[in-house]
Amino acid sequence: MIETGLKELDQSLSGGIKEGLVTSISGQSATGKTQLVFQICLNALHNGKDILFQDTTGNFRPERLVEMMRLQKINLSLLDRIKVSRVTNTAQQIQYLSKTSFKDYSLIIVDSVTDLFSFEYSKKEQSLEKHISFMKYMHDLSSIAINAKIPIVVTNIVRTIDKDEKENLDESISMYIHTKIKLSKNSNQYSCQVISPFDNKKFQYTITSKGLTVES
User: How do 50-55 and 82-86 pair as beta strands?
Assistant: First the structure.
């Protein structure tokens, strides 16, 4: 189990990010999704295994990780345990699952899981093909988490459509996600919620140089 660095979130998750499950972190732009992923990565480094970080957007910023590590007094040499893969198309994203041995990884990150599928299948007549391809990918990703007993964390964007917030490819992703974490922003306040039948408690957080922290 990997702690998230947010006490209230870990309590809602019964301790943190669990092995063998796919956890999604969704939210609108600039709500701290990647920041939270970085916190989870830093806590996973203590497990003694490597981390696979798949970057599909080109937004991975190692300097931000270095800043957080320095503030938390974490040895910078541990950065060598984070293997970053820049993925630029859905074929790479899909094929990576069959070409990688996951036994030496303590955590897998996909940031962001739906972006490339939405970009490559952007036409209306491609909608069915997009959902089928993405669902097969998520099925394979979920199988890896279960069979290899590895925690997998994916991020996903939330957009406002007709005043309603909607997660990208929500219908296709939801059936393969075991745990959902939603980050949201209202004016200058950020809130986090674990969406499950057992716990829907919300709490507020702030984004600082150290990462996401709970307001006191």
Answer: parallel
Q: Which two tokens stand for residue 151?
A: 């925690």
Residues of 169-191 as b/e, b for ≥16 C-beta within 10 angstroms?
Answer: beebbeebbbbbbbbbeeeeebe
| Tokens at 110, concatenated | 């996909």
Q: What is the DSSP letter of 6?
A: -
Using a cut of 0.70, tell me whether the model's pTM lies above it: yes
Two tokens, residue 72: 């938390």
CB distance 15 to 6 below 8 Å: no
Give the tens place of pLDDT for each residue, 128-167.
Answer: 999 999 999 999 999 999 999 999 999 999 988 777 889 9
* Cα gap 18→40, rounded to integer Å: 11
